[in-house]
Automatic annotation (TrEMBL), chains A, B:
BP-aspect Gene Ontology terms: phenylacetate catabolic process
Domain AMP-dependent synthetase/ligase: 90-284
Pfam families reported in the protein's UniProt record: AMP-binding, AMP-binding_C_2
Subunit record text: Monomer.
Its EC number(s): 6.2.1.30
Gene: paaK_2
Species this chain originates from: Methanobrevibacter cuticularis
Record's keyword terms, sorted: Ligase, Nucleotide-binding
Origin: domain of life: Archaea
PANTHER family: PHENYLACETATE-COENZYME A LIGASE
Protein name (database record): Phenylacetate-coenzyme A ligase
GO MF entries: nucleotide binding; phenylacetate-CoA ligase activity
Signal peptide (residue range): none
Domain AMP-dependent ligase C-terminal: 334-430
Length: 433, 433
């Protein structure tokens, strides 16, 4: 089923025409109502009338997270605050928090985005969605909550934590869909096993992954453990929240709701727009948003875009799964390393658990990467020789993936802290020296 | 302003007529669609047609929390689960959890209840509500969230925790309304003081108290510390959630939305209905709910009801603040003691902080109550003699309130654990012997 056939199956030409109209409108609204854009466009001698084609968007400057921080708290709002009905905020761990504001129509648009996405995952009003994303200032929990309301499925707003109870509720309530971060999903699978029942006994129809990077290998692992297909949900608080792009049953890229957000891929160094299928930084523009429309927001997420029709019948552009972020790339001995590459290598090895941490140090003025990986219970009781073999195998696979030799440490099962949200994968100790 | 003048200012006669019609309808729906009610009414030889007047409700048996537990998880639903769009649940710490189910109309009714309540507190679309109640399976956070959406104010869904950030956000976002449990409010006031600014500097218009028992003295204390009026919000997950009854600006009892819930007061021992203004256990009946209508649910909360018109212009019945729960009454040496009585006594004494715990022991086959109270910073650096005086003073006040001599221990400032939700006030160690 397709939630909004008109929007999702529109021809590329009609979509481009619609996008141009909306882009002209949003640039005008931003210019007239948001002092930040007004000032910046004036300085650069840009006027809304300069947008005569979609390509003209390249004339506009980027908006960055730092720009949003400068507007803290409500400086980026395009409407008087009495028209705002909800605000969210990023955590602010790396500086002043970023605030995101929503009018009533924005919340409805957000619900629509997620409704489309849940429908792509095969979910309808007969489903029971256990939403383990946290509710709060962060947008995690609310996107799925609003989308579930829109399509009429049952939402269990359990949020993160109480992990044993999560499993009990999956069984007792007959949960058919569970939404989690991949790392929390792995933790729940592990707990379920401890509690003595096979996670496949829960009759899951779909799993939604959000808020974390992951590899195809992690998807396979989770799908096997839960016996259900897992779909990627992408989004970010600044632009709206989770649901901006979601995978369909083809599991071949995430459909972007292009009538709501306009995607571009740029070279993160030069800022130049890249062509289809080229890997680069995702840049998004809100086409419909009233409360806080962002224009050319640099997401820092690395992906590519494909505008081919999908086998599911939708014509919206698809983005690849995020393979890294421009700011969680680790530069080691001059080589760019993404945690996702390490994960990919790890998941090829038997007898280890997919729990890992990457520790970067600079002991003798030279960068070193250590990867802590958990041995499986079986392995840990086996011969030491076997452990050395596995360790070497992992080092080989990783070297193969990233082109660098790293040190691998096998640690005791269950000794790597389990996340109840986003996993902490990288510990960079170099700044401490 | 009154949110729904028709419903809230209706004459007592019209209300009674409306309630009878709705009561007849809900009893019929429960009888026909909920196996629990069908079976019970059959056994007692009751038929929906027996309800010919509001008084006839007394013919119907009570519903208890245990009945709901037996129906776990979805046994009390009156509609097919595809019509349910959201479920909540009590924590289940004292047995099987209780599940509460909502149709789309139920969520809308809940929003309406809270919209009325927020309006009673003087809140409108210009306000910014910082909602510190937790979102999750418990209904705490969602009631205010939905109500705020209804009236169009801004909701900051920050939920509980991150207490320093709460204060920062109050300042930065210009919060005008904060919703908290009284004990969490006290904690925030304390933190704000530590952070070096007077909590009165936050330009608060109203405070909403929920989910916890408190005394008039606690209200005064919080009002002084935050420089804003504090209003009581009552509700429970089984019946819907917070918002069933809310205080208006008169601060003279909580207006019950009587077109949605029918209130009775009973003698908790005999089950007999008590007359107006008599103290007893509150019993509530859902008049409008589709998903899980409860009939004569025993709330265990002790209060009284007053049907006089209020000076605010509303004609709905008002309940007194909850003074205790039938199950948190402590029986000591045959005397019934409620924590609220102890709190009332404590708040009369200067130089102590309103943080306390009540510890019940049975050292020599005789019950003893110890009350741990924090001394203020000033007091703690003063003479020991002064401390002894205060201790005696508190013991006197409590004896005066409950008729029993208890042992009071003054402890170091900030040594009683602060709650980030409901405070743990009573520690009963008698079962350990």
């Amino acid at each position: 089923m397709i939630w909004n056939e008109k929007a999702e199956c529109m021809s590329r030409e009609d979509m481009a025409e619609l996008q141009l109209k909306k882009l002209q409108d949003v640039v005008k609204r931003a210019y007239e109502n948001i002092p930040y854009y007004h000032k910046k466009y004036k300085e650069l001698n840009i006027h809304p009338n300069d947008i005569q084609s979609l390509e003209d968007i390249e004339k506009l400057p980027f908006t960055t997270k730092d720009d949003l921080r400068e507007g803290y708290p409500f400086g980026m709002f395009a409407v008087p605050s009495r028209e705002i009905i909800e605000v969210h905020s990023s955590s602010g761990t790396t500086g002043k928090p970023v605030v995101s504001g929503y009018t009533r129509k924005d919340i409805d648009c957000w619900s629509e985005l997620v409704a489309r996405g849940l429908t792509m995952m095969g979910i309808d009003e007969n489903d029971i969605i256990q939403n383990t994303h946290g509710y709060g200032l962060f947008t995690g929990g609310f996107g799925v909550h609003y989308g579930s309301h829109k399509i009429g499925s049952i939402v269990i707003p359990i949020s993160t934590g109480q992990s044993r109870r999560q499993i009990e509720i999956m069984k007792d309530f007959g949960t058919t869909v569970v939404i989690f971060t991949p790392s929390y999903g792995m933790y729940l699978a592990e707990l379920a096993k401890e509690e003595g029942f096979d996670s496949k006994d829960i009759n899951l129809k779909a799993i939604g992954f959000g808020a974390e990077m992951w590899t195809e290998e992690m998807r396979q692992e989770i799908q096997t453990r839960f016996g259900a297909p897992a779909y990627n949900i992408y989004g970010l608080t600044e632009l709206m929240g989770p649901g901006i792009a979601v995978e369909c049953s083809a599991q071949d890229g995430l459909h972007i709701s292009e009538d709501y957000v306009y995607p571009e891929i740029i070279d993160p160094k030069t800022g130049k727009t890249l062509e289809e299928n080229k890997n680069g930084e995702l840049v998004l523009t809100n086409l419909e948003r009233e409360g806080m429309p962002l224009i050319r927001f640099r997401t820092k997420d690395i992906t590519s875009i494909n505008r081919q029709s999908c086998q599911c019948g939708r014509n919206t552009a698809r983005m690849e799964r995020i393979t890294g972020r421009t700011d969680d790339m680790i530069k080691v001995k001059g080589v760019a390393v993404f945690p996702s590459q390490i994960e990919k290598a790890l998941l090829k090895v038997n007898n280890i658990e997919p729990h890992y941490q990457i520790i970067v140090t600079r002991p003798h003025l030279m960068d070193e990467i250590e990867v802590k990986v958990e041995a499986s219970e079986d392995l840990f009781s086996d011969e030491v020789k076997e452990m050395i073999n596995i360790k070497k195998k992992i080092e080989d696979y990783i070297e193969n993936e990233i082109g660098l030799r790293v040190k691998v440490t096998l640690v005791e099962p269950k000794s790597i802290p389990r996340s109840e949200g986003k996993a902490i994968r990288v510990i960079d100790k170099r700044n401490l020296h």
